[in-house]
Amino acid sequence: MYDVSAIRADFPILAREVNGKPLTYLDNGASAQKPRAVIEAVTRAYESEYANVHRGLHFLSNLATDKYEAVRGTIARFLGAKDEHEIVFTTGTTEGINLVSYGWAAPRLEAGDEIVLSVMEHHANIVPWHFLRERQGVVLKWVEPEPDGSLPAEKVIEAIGPRTRLVAVTHMSNVLGTVVDVAAICKAAREKGVATLVDGSQAAVHMPVDVEAIGADFYAITGHKLYGPSGSGAIHIRKSRMAEMRPFMGGGDMIREVGREAVSYTDPPMKFEAGTPGIVATIGLGAALDYMMTLGMENIAAHEARIRDYAREKLFGLNWLTVQGDAPGKGAIFSFTLQGAGHAHDISTVLDKRGVAVRAGHHCAQPLMEHLGVTATCRASFGLYNTEPEVDRLISALELCHDLFA
């Protein structure tokens, strides 16, 4: 049984008030709150288990190394990966995608080669490819979503041409909540000999993910959205692609031997993990994923689907509110503008006075904003601890906004 009241009690911050009102936290798409299990794991790591990893022979170093390296297996289980050595620790999805851009794409893409992207991508899955466009003459080929915000797999597949070398696409839009059939895209791309990268930042939070079934060459996640610490994350890289990659950063831990005239590198995944890592953040991520797996990703998805359906009914019932996108099977993410309001920031400011936390702006998705014909939206993004009464608080605050701006 999914007991949302008990789950909420696991998150200390949800008990606080903001501006004299109960906190209604609907900014999960930007960063999720942390359960006590994560807070305690981080505190314990600093209080009684901390040392640098890998290179020490003393008790604390061995303990920290064991705790840290165990997270690789936890991430593999969470993502359905067969081999934990295909998991590379990162500071988040942004670093993971840059690792692919610098380590895999830059050495092999030439002027005129194409990267297929959707217009829905987060900037983290756009800017690293612009680097290649600016520096190497790579062509970015864009696929636009349908009017309802959906992105049919066949549209992406049809964009793959003879010069396409990579398809980089989101699994779930951080603005619209659209879920993309990335498994179909990856299958078609693989048959054409084209590599695939999937931004799993949002999808991995809200639904079960099986990277073996999806079949992407690269699948990136970020810890701070997964109820874990900021500065943590990982990317799943197929071994065949790892063998094609050069290191992204150089330093300690990723070397086998260093001399005056030459250097040799250790085996993946550590080949791509230079320097002292985010030890405690990674341990905290492991605790977060254990927490989510204990709840069950299917249970989380079912709960959020109920919240999504309830919120959808309420939001679409406000005829002065414009909700962007309504793709079938979307996640519990809603972006909207309000008639009469000067800017999305005005809406979010009023909502904040009522204790309702939402995000306002372009959500690091400016090409999508341009496609939608807006400069910014407000976004309410729900998580595993949100409830129907919190949806009602959002609606009540929006009605206050309407009264103020009408």
TrEMBL record:
This protein's record includes keyword Transferase: yes
GO molecular-function term, one example from the UniProt record: cysteine desulfurase activity
CC cofactor: pyridoxal 5'-phosphate
GO biological process assignments: cysteine metabolic process
Keyword Transferase included in the entry's annotation: yes
Family according to the record: Belongs to the class-V pyridoxal-phosphate-dependent aminotransferase family. Csd subfamily.
Stated name of the protein: Cysteine desulfurase
The organism's taxonomic lineage, starting at the top: Bacteria, Pseudomonadati, Pseudomonadota, Alphaproteobacteria, Rhodobacterales
